[in-house]
Amino acid sequence: MSSSAVAYAKKNHSRFLDELKALLRIPSISTLPENKDDCRHAAEVLVAELKRIGMENARLIETEGHPLVYADWLKAAGKPTALIYGHYDVQPTDPIEEWLSPPFEPTERDGNLYARGSADDKGQVWAQIKALESLMAANGALPLNVRVLLEGEEEVGGEGIASFVASKPPELKADFALVSDTELFAPGLPTLCVGLRGMIYTELEVRGAKTDLHSGMYGGAAPNPFVSLAQMIAKLKDENGHILIPGFYDDIIPPSSEELAAWESLPFDEEHYRKTEVGSRELVGEAGYSVMERTWARPSLDVHGIPGGFIGAGAKTVIPAKALAKISMRLVPGMTPAKAFALYKAYMEKVAPAGVDIDVRLIHAGDPCLIPVNNRFVQAATKALHEVWGKDTVFIRSGGSIPIVGDFDRHLGVPSVMMGFGLPDDNIHAPNEKFHLKNFELGIESIVRFLEESAN
Amino acid sequence: MSSSAVAYAKKNHSRFLDELKALLRIPSISTLPENKDDCRHAAEVLVAELKRIGMENARLIETEGHPLVYADWLKAAGKPTALIYGHYDVQPTDPIEEWLSPPFEPTERDGNLYARGSADDKGQVWAQIKALESLMAANGALPLNVRVLLEGEEEVGGEGIASFVASKPPELKADFALVSDTELFAPGLPTLCVGLRGMIYTELEVRGAKTDLHSGMYGGAAPNPFVSLAQMIAKLKDENGHILIPGFYDDIIPPSSEELAAWESLPFDEEHYRKTEVGSRELVGEAGYSVMERTWARPSLDVHGIPGGFIGAGAKTVIPAKALAKISMRLVPGMTPAKAFALYKAYMEKVAPAGVDIDVRLIHAGDPCLIPVNNRFVQAATKALHEVWGKDTVFIRSGGSIPIVGDFDRHLGVPSVMMGFGLPDDNIHAPNEKFHLKNFELGIESIVRFLEESAN
């Protein structure tokens, strides 16, 4: 099926890429207070572009954090309404010294565009907007009704959008959502993500002495919060990757045998994955579960950093007064953030060593979710993807969390199509993040065709 | 016994204090590269002052790190030679926000002088120099031969002075050393320290993936170096304060029953110590040992900080590629740094979890030591202290490490008199370090009288 919008996209690809680079130059790191203005700037650029391509009601929607971006076009009477979601905020850049080119100076190398946010998620957001531009420019109208909702807090828990969605505003009435924040299972393999892990992100604070003490004078009598914290973390997860929080696994709904069989048939080379993606001496995790099961269908627990204490060069012989660990857990279908956090908090309070006080804080949370694959929009997506990529779509899950998908479902009754164009080695959340240039191009065409198909 | 030098010290006390404040304003933090010039500046100020008061051969002695300060006065024919030691470098100031007045702006409050380095050790060094000035000014000569040797790397392992002492230079020929870097057991109680713990300061590095990874995508399959590090630390020390390194306690020489009995009779209120010095919910450590035994005569293990990973505000869902722990152990008589490090390293390599590579590095080391109390210089010290403080001297140990004391003994055969004037609550190595003004004053007088007595 030919599409004049696809032709328009092909013809304008070079300009689209230049525009994306401009967006990537804005350091919209949502977690850092010093980048607050940059986040707003990125949002304003998106509003302006949505207006320019012919969307209506384009505007910022203020939240307690970074603003949402909204626009719509609702003139396709009798046609379904798509709710298009992405995020304009990005992860921090540390460790900055490991970047081969500056994170906010987009650089093309080997068919890829390197920049913080290139794959996660500005490149995908720009593919959505450029698909809308192509449809509008080629036909003078969109084939269906469209609402665009972009957020600037996806990397920090997305509280603003969560509150907004929970308020069930009329602006979000839609038949389905297009969420572009995922990846292909392998290069060239069209992929729809139909399951996500949820999460709880926490801080565990341990306090010992009232002030920092000299480790010579007090070592052996004063509690050391870093040692206590280590002892507590060691009680959270054993060396086989098993989480030791009592009751943590109780409510898990395992994947069906059909789903497991489909995962088995995916092109996956564990040794290649270990070597090129992870690069560790060996993979770890629960025995008896494949890598796909461990990362998609089993909960996990990670420590992200342990601020406090002496972290400079050289030596300082101090017993720090307190220590803090940033600890998150990924949750799978059947689990809820509220129960997982309650179990974790109670367990930490129970195993805290003598001499220290602890404080367990929930920083943010997201529900796990599973998408039914038998609805017409998923079917439209597979048809569009087959045309653009020439292959059948594979259905996978992701180990990551996109809390908005659960929110759309729970509050709006809107099912999501998670059609994303990242690749497993895109280094999202890490130095040298990239977006494959070909995926940016075919991503735009896939979204054009998906929206056209969804209109039928 | 009257002393015209003591009278001179009393008369000039106000000037002495102003001079000390000037020295304290120099931020000579030895561990931070950015304060390198400040360390040299402090050393130059000391050289100039030693010249000014009449010492000879005053000069810097270069090392690979911060310079040593040397001066002598050797005209007391037939009299013994004192080697006077102290250090001009100071600890870092973090956490800076907890200081009530700026660390390098000396401030008098409640009879104390608050500043980084006030007690550890610039205040004590200045007491030594002002004692020499008083003796010289009052008598036109010193009562015995004196060599002064000050270092600028005490807080970072003291490698420069260790090499210099190990070379057995003629400049260090002496009959005894006066080391002023310790504290009184209680306010107003004259104290000589006759035992020190040694130490090994180490870095334990754990590496997992080749780069930082997204904890959603990879959590459950990729090794997490922070979790591995916590598991390893938990295997180093149990919750009863017992160090779990095999063989670690094998060579310890316990204190004699006489020494233990003397410790028992010291004025010590454990609950007061817990509340006002440590300020923790409870004290910790090995059952069956008093606080004095735990901190003076038993080895200890502390974690000082765990750099790496995400330590910013908010949330970053990263599995860091590596983690590092700064870990030190205090050693007691019978133990050697070499053996302790070898046992520790072998044990860590044995218990490292699957999936990670580790690296165990020794940053610096110091021998434990015990001083015999029956020599004439210790006797002279107790006599001098009794005159100035009006009380009998108590003999204690310190849990801290002053490696130079072991070096003086081993390389030069010179016994040390550890006569220091800090107080247990001086917050050395912590925010709001202070030096009790009365102790500065009586410290100068004590050193004057000690040197006069030692000449007899």
Contiguous low-pLDDT stretches of chain A (5 residues minimum) are none
Task: Give the averaged pLDDT of chain A, no decimals.
Answer: 95
Number of helical segments with 4 or more residues of chain A: 14
Terminal residue distance of chain A: 13 Å
CATH C-level class of the largest domain in chain A? Alpha Beta
What's the quaternary structure here? homodimer
* CATH architectural group of the largest domain in chain A: 3-Layer(aba) Sandwich
Which two chains share the most extensive interface? Answer: A-B, 103 and 103 residues
- What's the arrangement of strands in the largest beta sheet of chain A? 1-2-6-3-7-17
The name of the CATH superfamily of the largest domain in chain A reads: Zn peptidases
| Main beta-sheet strand count, sense and barrel state of chain A | 6 strands, mixed
Please state the CA-atom Rg of chain A, rounded to the nearest Å.
23 Å
DSSP helix fraction of chain A:
25-40%
Shape of chain A: globular
Number of strands of chain A: 18
Strand fraction of chain A equals 15-25%
Classify the fold: give the CATH topology of the largest domain in chain A: Aminopeptidase
Description:
The structure is a homodimer of 456-residue chains. By secondary structure, the first copy, chain A, is of the alpha+beta class. Chain A has 2 domains: 4-196 and 369-455, Zn peptidases (Aminopeptidase); 198-252 and 299-366, Alpha-Beta Plaits, CATH 3.30.70. Chain A has 14 helices and 18 strands. A 6-stranded mixed sheet of chain A has the order 1-2-6-3-7-17, with helices on both faces. In chain A, helix 1 (4-11) crosses helix 4 (118-139), helix 4 packs across helix 14 and helix 5 (159-166) packs parallel to helix 13. The model of chain A has no long low-confidence stretch (mean pLDDT 95). At the A-B interface, strand 10, helix 6, helix 7, helix 10 and strand 11 of A face strand 10, helix 6, helix 7, helix 10 and strand 11 of B. Strand 11 (300-309) of chain A pairs antiparallel with strand 11 (300-309) of chain B.
